[in-house]
């Protein structure tokens, strides 16, 4: 009897397994059918209407001590012209103009392509033009887009517009930005459409993305922290949306919250670790150095803003009040330090070159030579010793010694600076380094980069010719 039973039991298992498999297949078929019905319905509507995917990148304000404030430090009420003025400040701090301006003759009219892993998103026109801009948007439409990531027509916005951060912004600050945008000159311009791969061009799928990557709700001050700390948290986490560049992404392209502010690569540029870790982050910077970097783009002996960060300083952070800059610094100091594996701060590498010039004198160079290329293209401004010219003056040519881009664990930013140059305009200086991308080949750029890191920075940081070729194509 026992033997007969043991023969029957294994036969029952495949039946149960088949039933489970059939149920799964039926479930998948039902989901696919619903999806197919949606696609058919969508196509039957004809050409889809154009949507505004990106709205103003915003929030932050100049405090008005004469008015009562809420817990986030926002004046409870601002009248007329003061509201517009504060909204202009907020739009500056949020750097709206950077994403919503492709042509400087058409500010805020959109058209800037943003490359993502799933395709290209083109920023919309946010001027008050009623046909191509947001002139017909209501205040409720604007608030919903900023706080919930939902456009005027109920469409889901893509997270290239960082509503993940903007949801934290108070209604008062959002409405101040709204008031300022209404005063802009309307520009009749319809930017090109997005080019996203299927199924990512299906906006309704953002519902699932939001489930894992978005928590709607306004900023809640921490009663255990000071007003200055809360102000910094409100700015960094919402208004200035610092995490969008300085926090790595998960597989869904959402922010990896377990590694906040630990650094990430954006369009070829490395947005460095800004946690207080003394080796990988900015733990060895003084408060004054951090404040100077945000306000001027330069902290001598530490770093000089280039690429996207130079643009942020030019269009945004140089306009912050001293109080807001101080609040940001205080909040950044409180973050949990995250070590990225570096054994030494990126701004503590390098020594002056000793005799490269004399060594090359009279020497025939038959191959690509980093030292020769450096002396021919870079030494006029940075000195052949690498020590720069002008010391710490606002318009100085920076030293390559004790320089974050040269001492970093990867040479991306250095190669990108050589390829694309530097443009940074502040109240202190107009900084310009020419782009050498059209003058030098990929192997020459790689040779200069590797010479500079070996001679003046982190000798373990190198780039290949293929890497330079990829960086050259970055927007």
TrEMBL record:
GO molecular function, one term: electron transfer activity
Membrane-spanning intervals of the chain: 21-41
Binding site residues for heme c 3: 378, 381-382
Entry-linked InterPro entries: Cyt_c-like_dom (IPR009056), Cyt_c-like_dom_sf (IPR036909), Cyt_C_IC (IPR008168), Cytochrome_c-type_DH (IPR051459), Membr-bd_ADH_cyt_c (IPR014353)
GO cellular component, one term: plasma membrane
Residues annotated as binding heme c 1: 96, 99-100
Subcellular location: Cell membrane
SUPFAM superfamilies reported for this sequence: Cytochrome c
Name of protein: Mono/diheme cytochrome c family protein
Organism per entry: Paraburkholderia fungorum
